[in-house]
Design goal:
The protein is an alpha/beta fold. It has 4 helices and 4 strands. The termini are close together.
Length: about 130
């Protein structure tokens, strides 16, 4: 099963750990953003890379069978929010979606959610996907 992990960029190390666990179960997790290639040190470089980065993410999602969205509790600081677009894109194209974390907006109520990664692994049974 091809899986896309969507989450805040600041959680990249955590999500790479989840990707390793899923790969050990026999799944494919090859979203390019997890490789760190979407990191830009300044606003000018980010602006130049944005279109390419967005296109890569949408292609990776389109090749996936499942998207797992890692949500965050509400916070007072702003974030880029690309994970919400990725989640919506997958929903629109009929890709199976799951939520790990709190409900951040009304669209996250449309999928099965789990409070934590360990609960997802225990009850979501990703090891059985594709069998």
């Amino acid at each position: 099963m091809r899986i896309y992990l969507a989450g805040r960029y600041g959680r990249i190390d955590e999500l790479n750990g989840y990707a390793r666990a899923l790969r050990k179960m026999g799944h494919t997790v090859d979203c390019r953003w997890l490789g760190g290639a979407h990191r830009a040190e300044d606003a000018q470089l980010m602006e130049e890379l944005s279109e390419r980065i967005a296109t890569q993410d949408l292609v990776d999602i389109g090749l996936s069978d499942v998207l797992i969205a890692f949500t965050d509790p509400p916070r007072s600081t702003s974030s880029r929010g690309g994970r919400h677009v990725e989640f919506g894109y997958a929903l629109a194209y009929g890709i199976s979606c799951y939520r790990v974390g709190p409900i951040e907006n009304v669209f996250y109520t449309r999928v099965t959610g789990y409070p934590t990664w360990s609960e997802f692994l225990r009850r979501g049974q990703p090891e059985r996907w594709g069998q």
